[in-house]
Structures are given as C-alpha cells and as structure tokens.
Amino acid sequence: MREPVITPSTIADPKTKYGNAKSSTRHFFTQRLTGAINILFTAFLIYIVISIAGEGREGVVSLLGNPVIGIVFAILFAIVCVHMRIGMREIIEDYVHEQRTNRLSLSLNSFFAIAVGVVGVLSVLKLVFWG
Question: Which residue has the higher pLDDT, 66 or 12?
Fold first, then answer.
C-alpha cells in the first residue's frame, strides 16, 4: 500500500487531517514545562554532584538518604524521564517513516523511558527509606 504524498500545501490545508492537534499541543506544552523545570532543578543537581564528589558510599547514602534531598532528586529523575520520552518521540516521528517501524520505535521509546524512570526513582527512594 502506497502512503500519500505529504507536501507543504497538504499540511497547510485545514481540511486535511495531518496529525492530532490535541496530542501535539499537549506534547508541546509538556516538553516546554519539563524543560523549564529541568532548568530550575539544574542548580539542585549541581549541588548534589559537588556535594558527593570525592565521597565514599557512606557520604552518598547520607546525602541522598536525607528525605528532602532524596524526594526532590526522585522527582527530578521522573521529570527528566518524561522530558526524554517526549523528545525522543518527536525525533522518531520526524525521522522514522515506515508505520510498522514507527510504532515499534515509539513503543520501545516509551518502555525504555518508563523503565529508566522506575529504576531510578525506586533506587533513590530505597536510599531514602532503607539506606
């Protein structure tokens, strides 16, 4: 089956259904919001990296074991994974054109982002609550 040819005039014509407007708008705002939050958390992340530089395991566990720092770090980890998933989704949608490969790539992207997020957040929470 041949895919339709997409030209700039096809995209500009409001009568053609090219993409999902609600989904695209949500992804756009979510990407910008998580990017802004990541910028705000950068100072916190720099503080963590400087604080644990040269420390042994005990120093890292004591710093990340602090509930305030650990919870904020876990939230940062989750937000970074959401941002990563949406960014990679945009790249896949732009450069992978075959429908079957596109769906597989998008599924693997979601799985990878969720897996990294869950492992990261659970690791930080384990340090916070169980040392």
Answer: 66
Over the stretch 52-97, which tens digit does the pLDDT of each residue have?
899 898 888 888 888 998 889 899 999 999 999 999 998 998 888 8
Closest CA to 81 of 51, 111, 46: 111
Q: Are 127 and 64 in contact (CB under 8 A)?
A: yes
Percent helix, strand and coil across the chain, each to the nearest 5: 80, 0, 20
Rounded to two decimals, what is the model's pTM? 0.75
Torsion sign (Cα): 38, 41, 42, 46: negative
**CATH entry 3.30.720.210 includes domain 22-130:** no
Residues 73 and 63: their CA atoms lie apart, in Å, by 11
- Label residues 35-72 b or e (16+ Cβ within 10 Å = b): eebeeebeeeeeebeeeeeeeeeeeebebbbeeebbeb
Q: Which of 74, 102, 75 is nearest to 88 (CA)?
A: 102
